[in-house]
Write a structure and sequence with these properties.
Blueprint: H1 2-18, E1 27-30, E2 41-42, E3 48-53, H2 61-80, H3 82-87, H4 90-107, H5 111-118, H6 124-141, H7 144-154
Parallel strand pairs: 1-3
Antiparallel strand pairs: 2-3
Helix pairs in contact: 1-2, 2-4, 4-5, 4-6, 6-7
The chain binds zinc ion.
Length: about 160
Amino acid sequence: MVENTLYRIVRDICERKLGMSGAGSPNLELENMAPNLGGYWESGKDRVALGRIKIQYHTTPLILLGVIAHEWTHAWFQRRCPRQDATSGARFTEGLATWVQGKFYEISGVKDIFIEKILPEMPSYPYREGYDYFIILEHEHGGAEELIDWLKSQG
Ligand SMILES: [Zn+2]
């Protein structure tokens, strides 16, 4: 299944390049989520539905990969940092997911696509404001992996 391949690519980069361990094995389901591109929510205690992603005829695998990275980050944060996930607002949680989405493109060598095409299409609040906030946090912590380590230490 193509979605499993895309999912593996995303998880591999997030886990190995950013140190985002501890998300368990959330499921990925592809589903028409119009008008949204994707979503993430817990569904039961043992099973997590991850990223019910809208598929459009003109949606490219490159766009889909970024959406998976974004939704997978919500799963990771909820499972690995439950206290912060419960107490942080939308700007923080969406900022983190959007920032990881951007890091995914950067690590893959196509950051320009994210900066020029994808990010400008996202609403200012909470996505672009949150992204800008996480860029500041990344600099304050001295790098992406260091920022992820700090998030993990906060629980
Ligand atoms: Zn989100």
